[in-house]
Amino acid sequence: MHKKMYNFDQQITRRGTNSVKWDETDGNDIIPMWVADMDFLAAPAIQKALEERVKHGVFGYTIVTNSYYEAIISWFSRRHQWQIENDWIIYTTGVVPAISAVIHALAMPGEKVLIQSPAYNCFFSSIKNQGCEVVEAPLKREGDSYVMDWDDFEAKCSDEKTTLFLLCNPHNPSGRVWTKDELAKINDICLRHNVIVISDEIHCELIMPDYTFTPFAAVNEACQNNSITLNSPTKNFNIAGLQIANIICKNPTWRRRVNRVVNIFEICDVNPFGPIALEAAYNESEDWLDELNIYLNNNYLALKDFFKTEMPQLEVLKLEGTYLVWVDIKRLGIKSKILAKRLLAEGHVFINSGTLYSKDFGEGYLRINIATPRATMLEGLRRMAKVVKAL
Questions:
Q1: Among 224, 251, 284, residue at a domain's last position
Q2: Structurally, how many domains does the chain consist of?
């Protein structure tokens, strides 16, 4: 039996802290289950490391030291059997700025960037902002999950104007954790058509029991040579406000180009707290993370039970990774955006419409963030059920 060391049921008041999640909406009675951050205290080791740094009292310009790179290399070797070299790592301030920088570095305006819809909403803007065209290769619904439509994916890759594929691994918003075989097949297709893979792996540590995360670049040598990985401890350890992420690229030519754009975009200034938090997360907080994943899985099971009894006409899709649950509302006969607006206005619960993740392939779905104390989650679901029952 797992011995609990951390209290994820603890209620933390986040209102009044300039929280995007809690302070961006009007009214003090809204339960936010939308944006992807968690309502849990950061791991004690992270808090302690930051407190020690604050005590110093001087917060000037900061460098990234060897201990930072060593923490990343050790973590991915130990936890994911992925051997990274120091030179491959480029420090940056966030995964989304990194996506834009990599696209800018490797694609010309007018070229096409492939994504799998429904897809993280920032993928669309990052591609368009670099003057490139978004091409959607929709995932195929199969039972309570999604699979890849290989024929469509290859057809889209075969377009000579398609130069990059932006992968989300694990996938937001569907909750899929791609298997090693799926990732290898993606790369085989991309290599055939000279398409470079950019793998956004920001949710990589949020994995439910019975599933295994595989870094794209760790699948085989071919995957490593044909990809750039973007990752960060921010989602996994609830430190998004510290603005820290890493671009990992073995190919020296691509790395030079990306590094130049990162500097031109000026997204490489070092926050004095970010590297300290990363080191405390990767070196001292693995037990916290493991316990978090158990708690999140239990939240998911509680959500499924709630839907079964209170909203049986809605279908909860399988959650393999992330803390973002994808819910099929098509049987209600109401548009996703309209339901989301009614949930906010009438139920005072903020849940994202699936159309945020693709106008065509997100319709009929909602995305629910369950990374909150169970009592808060259940209250949000009760509010949702009240609105649904009144339709």
A1: 284
A2: 2
